[in-house]
Amino acid sequence: MPNIYEVVRRQDRSFDLLHNGELEQSSIPDRWLEDELSKRGICGREYRDVRNQLDDSGKAKLSF
Fold first, then answer.
1. CA–CA dist 50, 58 (Å, integer)
2. Half-sphere exposure of 56 toward its Cβ, with a 13 Å CA cutoff?
3. CA 43, CA 58: separation in Å to the nearest integer?
4. Which pLDDT score, from 0 to 100, does residue 28 have?
5. Which structural domain, as residue segments, surrounds residue 49?
6. Residue 4: what are its φ and ψ, rounded to 5°?
7. Rg of the chain's alpha carbons, rounded to an integer?
8. What is the count of structural domains for the chain?
9. Using one digit for the tens of pLDDT, what is the confidence trace for 9-56?
10. In whole angstroms, what is the distance from residue 56 CA to residue 35 CA?
11. pTM score
């Protein structure tokens, strides 16, 4: 079963993090998003991909 992470921007500009469809963390401030994702192994190129998706649509999805 793949690990699926989703990051969704909230109206207050913080982020929610879902893992396999379950809310794992809510209201992550922008300045902490990179640290929170790196704890889950999402860093470097993967983080840049997430950030680009968030800038484009307010949502990002990664599957491992």
1. 10
2. 8
3. 18
4. 98
5. 4-63
6. -120, 120
7. 11
8. 1
9. 999 999 999 999 999 999 999 999 999 999 999 999 999 999 999 999
10. 21
11. 0.92
